[in-house]
Request: fold
Amino acid sequence: MTIKWDARFSVNNAIIDAEHKLLLTTINGLEMALRHPEDKEPLLFFIDQLYEYSIEHFRHEEALQLQYFFPFRDENKQGHDELEIEITRIRTDIHAILKKDNLLPEDIATLREHSAFLAKGWLMKHILTEDLKMKGFMGSDEVA
Ligand SMILES: [Fe+2]
Reply:
């Protein structure tokens, strides 16, 4: 299911919002690629991009939180560390599955579970519960 960006995702900081939009687009790309799991290249591309963007985003968000004295930055960092472990594990698993010559129905089911988990459990949880606490702390929503 494609996730569309809407105002409830906004933390009122244009840079963080832009990065969250990019993460969302990348997850949607992964979901689209899963419609044709026999075509492995787009799947590898999107999981690798999602991994790289996520790590980069977490470090960038942590630096901005420090800059704006965001009071919940320790717990947000802890959330990032846990998410980093999860996405690393899922990426490794997806790579291992895609090394097989022929994907079995259970392999495709596992790929879909990983993708759904990343979209709903992971990104939505990150943005809608942990990151929304930044609203009001992170300066203006204008790009400097
Ligand atoms: Fe974030």
